[in-house]
Amino acid sequence: MSETKGKIVQRRVFMYHIFSSFAAHAYLFEEWKRKKRKGWSEAEQLPLSTFSLYIYHFLSLSVSPVNQLRVFHILQRADAAMVSDSIPNASIASSNLRDFAKKKRANRSAKLKQCKLDARREQWLSHVKNKGDYKGEANGGVIASIGASVHLENRTRQPIGELEIKTRSEEGIFGDGSSLHHYSDSDSVQSNSPTSLTSSVLGSNDSGANFTGSSSSRSSSSANGSCSGNMSEEDEGDAGGDDCLDDWEAVADALAATDDKQKDSPSSENHEHSTESGSQVDASDQMISEINIPRIHTASANSESGRTDNRRALINCCAWRPDDAFRPQTLPNLAKQYSFPLKSERHLDGGSVWVCKSVAMIPKACPICFEDLDYTDSSFCPCACGFRLCLFCHKRILEEDARCPGCRKKYEVEPIDGEATLDGGSITYRLARSCSMVARS
Amino acid sequence: MATGTNTHHQDSNPNTPAAAAAPPKQAVPTAKTVDTQSVLKRLQSELMALMMGGDSGISAFPEEDNIFCWKGTISGSKDTVFEGTDYKLSLSFPSEYPFKAPKVKFETSCFHPNVDIYGNICLDILQDKWSSAYDVRTILLSIQSLLGEPNISSPLNTQAAALWSNQEEYRKMVEKLYKPVA
Q1: Residue ranges, chain A, pLDDT below 70
Q2: What are the beta bridge partners of residue B115?
Q3: How far apart are CA A390 and CA A367, in angstroms?
Q4: Cα of A183 vs its chain's centroid, Å
Q5: A248 lies within 8 A of chain B by CB
Q6: Neighbour order of strands in the sheet with B103-106
Q7: Which residues does chain A have within 8 Å of residue B49's beta carbon, measured at their own beta carbons?
Q8: Contact A425, A405 (CB under 8 A)
Q9: Do A371 and B38 touch (CB under 8 A)?
Q10: For residues A417 and A431, what is the distance between their CA atoms, to the nearest angstrom?
């Protein structure tokens, strides 16, 4: 499963860099269709929100490219969140999942659920909050933030007349998309469907009735209610998925680092709007208010957090941790740059030209038996001369004369022992990665 | 919930005996065949590398039906007394091949301080200095360079060793004794 996910992630990165955002979205849409055809268990959950986002963004394509980029980042994040969420689900049999959902619905009283939902939301938000101010804007739930950010962008960048039409059509369709989503997972928590229903109605009502900027903000944040409720629902029972989300957010942040300045002021603006709309919705619908209230709390808490900048800077510098399993392997490795000089030096010490050559195009295969080196083998460096071989051949040689084929020195019994070999050990690790790079290119 | 777990068990149960049965089957034949298999793979890879490498002055190819016996040729390097001569060699690989050196002999008689009249070669890397990292290509290149730079201190052919200091005479001897490769 992780492999599939890795592929998906890789492909998306690729798409993102090569094609325009439009092409990327067309791709996302195609991917959704493909998954649906395959009948993946998670396809029900993942693509519909993607789909709604797709439509949503499709309509916003007339916005300036910078804003498109932002929207796309958020969409990526939302998508990553969905993907990560679907991973643990897939491991369970789908029937089990359904049973679980049914049972959940039967057993819990609405109030208890609400409490739990709120608590979980608090957790999730506080987690996301730390990611920085760019995400601070997106705090209401990843999907919801699209409504907010696009709306803000519209407000700041577009003539008012255009804005009105746009927001109205967007809201209408977005409402449809979200309600469709909720109906399709009828097994999931019951609070979602009524919420989304009312929200979509509300959304269309608001945008239909009023033609001012503030009204559209209301409609967008009422949509927020349903979506963020949905997000917290998906968030449950899934702690590992956050990592993936982190990564995507880090990537998005790194890419959108230049946009941050512009973002800062709108984000505070957004909080005001959401608060306002929260109270407004509170009067009209209890369910939505219950969902909205914790969000507003965290939003205000978020606006005070200046310390998040440090954290974000930290994340920005490494989109993927080096040990991250989901890091696309095609990404270049910085370690490569300084590992090679080190290497050739070592080889000149070894004294034989051919060894130098055989290691320069580093062992994809064991130089002794020509079998492919697996990960363990390629991170195995038994001799300080840097000559690598597979564990089988090494064992065989140990049984006979126990000399390194590369330098003819006796193998030390404990390869990682003194400081020299310790040094060699760290080099080994770097080389293992750069090796794979070389082999691929 | 109950049906869900049941199907799960049914799914997993048939798998376990099959998985348990598989390993012993594989384990039985491995012991002896793995060795020759790995030698075969190594020799095939070497052959491939040799043919793709395009080293001038050396070549080698297995004999008709036995990949453990190869015939190689070496051309005398430029600016040595062996310039313009080709020598045929035979290489026979032991079943422990990469860990044990192959036996290499000159098929063509070669007037050289470190090659005896039977074609045996005195070269350290073919004896105690052998390393499993050497391959046919490096052996042939080593022998090629040995032609131009003999080790006079431990000669097999004392006459050649004595004559080595006089390169002109030596060249004449080489030409006189040289029998071109058929």
Answers
A1: 1-363, 413-441
A2: B112, B121
A3: 8
A4: 26
A5: no
A6: B58-63, B66-75, B86-92, B103-106
A7: none
A8: no
A9: yes
A10: 19
Q: ipTM > 0.90?
A: no
CB A181 within 8 A of CB A196: yes
pLDDT at position A377 is 85
- Residues of chain A with C-beta less than 8 angstroms from the C-beta of B42: 368-370
CA distances from A403 to A7, A364, A376, B173 (A): 42, 22, 21, 41
pLDDT in tens, A359-405: 444 668 888 888 888 888 888 888 888 888 888 888 889 988 888 98
Q: Measured between alpha carbons, how far is residue A49 from residues A82, A113, A308 in Å? A: 9, 23, 29
Instruction: Dihedral sign for Cα B143, B146, B152, B157, please.
Output: positive
CB contact under 8 A, B38 and A405: no
Q: Which two tokens stand for residue A299?
A: 């939003």
Q: Is A296 on the interface with B (CB under 8 A)?
A: no
Q: Are A77 and A248 in contact (CB under 8 A)?
A: yes
CA distance B161 to chain A (A): 27
Query: Which residues of B carry out catalysis?
Result: 122
Chain B residue numbers touching A363 (CB-CB < 8 A): none
Contact B5 A96 (CB under 8 A): yes
Structure token digits, residue A133 = 């101010």
Q: Tell me the one-letter amino acid at B77.
A: S
State phi, psi for B83 to the nearest 5 degrees. -60, 135
Distance from CA of B38 to the nearest CA of A (A): 6
Report the gap between the CA of B40 and the closest CA in chain A (Å).
9
* β-strand partners of B91: B70, B104
Pick the residue from chain B with its C-alpha nearest to A100. Answer: B1
Distances (CA, A) of A412 to A344, A409, B15: 22, 9, 44
pTM: 0.38
| A371 in B contact zone (CB under 8 Å) | yes
- How would you label A3-39 residue by residue, b for 16+ Cβ within 10 Å and e otherwise? eebeebbbebbebbeeeebeebbebbbebbeebeeee
With beta carbons under 8 A apart, name residues in chain B contacting A99: 1, 3-4
Strands (E), B27-180: 58-63, 66-75, 86-92, 103-106
Please write the tens of the pLDDT for every residue from A175-222.
343 333 334 333 433 434 333 333 333 333 343 333 333 333 333 333
Which of A99, A369, A397 lies closest to B42 in CB terms? Answer: A369
B131/A405 CB distance under 8 A: yes
With beta carbons under 8 A apart, name residues in chain A contacting B131.
Answer: 403, 405-406, 408
> Closest Cα of chain B to A229: distance in Å?
26
- Of the candidates B7, B8, B41, the beta carbon closest to that of A370 is on B41
Alpha helical stretches, state H, A92-212: 94-107, 110-129, 133-136, 142-157, 160-184, 192-209
Using an 8 Å Cβ cutoff, are A269 and A152 in contact?
A: yes
Total residue count of chain B as it appears in this document:
182
